[in-house]
Amino acid sequence: MAVLCAVLLTACGGGDDSGSAKPDLADQDRFLRDYVVFLNASDEDGLSGLLDAHPQGSKDARARIKEYGGRDWDVRWTRASDFAGVWKVDITGTARTKNRPVRVTETITWEKAHWVMNPLPDVVPTPSDAADTEPPR
Question: Which DSSP state fits 1?
Answer without folding.
Answer: -
